Amino acid sequence: MTSPIFYVSSDELQSATPGQLIAVQGVEGHHAKVVKRLEIGEAIDLADGRGIRAHAEVASYLDDGLEVRVDTIVREELSTEIILVQALAKQDRDILAIETATELGIGGVIPWSADRSIVRWKKERAAKAHAKWSNIVRAAAKQARRSWVPQIENLVSSRELAKYLTEEIAQGALAIILHEQGTLSLTRYLNDSENLPQRIYLVVGPEGGISAQELEAFENAGATVCLLGEHVLRSSTAGSAALCVINTLSRAW
After folding, report:
1. How far is C-alpha 97 from the geometric centre of its chain's CA atoms?
2. Strand partners for 23
3. Is 186 in contact with 242 (CB distance < 8 Å)?
4. pLDDT digit string (tens) for 66-112?
5. Which residues contact 138 (CB under 8 A, 6 or more apart)?
6. Is it the case that residue 1 has pLDDT exceeding 70?
7. Separation of alpha carbons 233 and 218, rounded Å
8. C-alpha to C-alpha distance for 47 and 54, rounded to whole angstroms
9. CB 133 within 8 A of CB 119
């Protein structure tokens, strides 16, 4: 089994060297010492959430955590950064979507208030909802032993998303709209692409689907509409299904 992972600040890992002692305290320290009950000499990984990982072992106990001794430092890069644009959805289907996608290797998440989203992040609850999403992906990344924790960007409207995709596509990114009315299969589209770009956006609509106006705006921005098989997938599963396709074709798996 791989070593459990705990997150510390980038400042602590940027300058870390083999043999150095690093204190794991606070919430992470409590989890390592009290919940996981790690023992002296047990292997442990530390990460900063941005790709730096330290392989280490537990050296001693602290009152509020552990002290670990660094063995090696590695930097893990994302060959292709896949960003999930997830529409807000009811019954926590959006939460399930970002949690599963994080385990599968998503690089970032953009919450999207689509025209047909029933759930709304109103002013008084926006910060709380954003924090919840951040906590969800952090926990999922830890469960998957990832050194990268996906960033949750600010909530965007359909108009803001269309503008953002226009700018990103102009810089070489690929944007894929997952839609049941698509005629081009995702697998065929990616197979026909010579090389996958460094950044790919997967746009997943809410339970009511993407509106015709939104679809037109995204296509005008340069996005491509693709189909995932013969069945209509829920908002909670479409992004993860597409991510599995990309991981397989890119040989990440």
Report:
1. 10
2. 67
3. yes
4. 999 999 999 998 888 999 999 999 999 999 999 999 999 999 999 99
5. 7, 49, 149
6. no
7. 20
8. 6
9. no
**At what angle are helices 238-249 and 93-103 packed, to 10 degrees?**
20
Nearest to 178 by CA among 86, 252, 88: 86
pTM above threshold 0.70: yes
Location of structure tokens 């926006």: 126
**Which DSSP symbol is given to 38?**
P
Kindly write down the DSSP assignment for every residue of 104-157, as one continuous string.
TT--EEEEEE-TT-S----HHHHHHHHHHHHHHHHHHHHHTT-SB--EE---EE
For the record, the structure tokens of 60 come out as 């001693």
Q: What is the pLDDT of residues 17-60, one digit of tens each?
A: 999 999 999 999 999 999 999 999 999 999 999 999 999 999 99
How far is Cα 10 from Cα 249, in angstroms, rounded to an integer?
A: 32
Chain-centre distance for alpha carbon 186: 20
Which token pair is 206? 């809410």
Q: Which pLDDT tens digit goes with each residue over 187-231?
A: 988 887 767 888 999 999 998 899 999 999 999 999 999 988 888
Kindly provide the b/e burial profile for residues 110-135, where b requires at least 16 CB atoms within 10 angstroms of the residue's own CB: bbbbbbbbebebeeeeeeebbeebbe
The closest of 108, 114, 8 to 52, measured between CA atoms, is 8
Longest distance between any two alpha carbons in the chain, whole Å: 60
**Cα 98 from Cα 107, distance rounded (Å):** 11
**Helix-, strand-, coil-residue percentages of the chain, each rounded to 5:** 35, 30, 35
